[in-house]
Design a protein that fits this description.
Length: about 220
Amino acid sequence: MDRNREAGGDFAAAAQKDGARAQSCRCASDSTGVPRRIFLRGMLAGGLAASTAQPGIADDTKPGDDERPQPGDVFVFFEGERQGKIVALADLKRSAAPALVWPMDPKSKVVRSGSRLNQVVLLALDPASLDSNTRSAAPDGVIAYSAICTHAGCTVTGWVKDQGTQVLKCPCHNSEYDPRRGATVVFGPAPRHLAMLPVSIDNGALVVAKSFIGKVGPSTSA
Ligand code: FES
């Protein structure tokens, strides 16, 4: 067993002791437990708007913010210094850890952060390393998947090496998904692959090409 799995096992043990906390890991709240959009609204009111401002991200009332990604949507960064910034092709490094993002309607500027089922991971991989189905939805090797684990709905945030290649890993119970083969499950209790979100590249911007292919999240999700 590799180190990552051992580390994940520790997490899983902790998760069993504190199931509620595990289920909420990297969900729509900050580390204080404040719901994410309330937290963002507080940041904006506190004068951080200049660094994070993106129309729609802090507004609870915008219609469409809980709709699934629509064709033509762009993506904005979910967290970090670039939170709220539109993701361009140049922002993704090949084979680097995935970017956690939200879709955004480019016309209304509504970020679809009203449902955590809209969290997406974006990756840039070597196109030659993708199977044919995955490559067909991944221009220049850029591929997007739902970030919601199909086991119990945690956010899939890990990026680890497994037998010489990288896999997406869920921190809650260690499920691993192969992003080069349609995010098929290669380890752990997840019952099925992550939903795929086909993308296209438009003048250097990453754009949703089609709706999710496959069910988002666990069987019980909406
Ligand atoms: S929620 Fe259990 S492996 Fe992801």
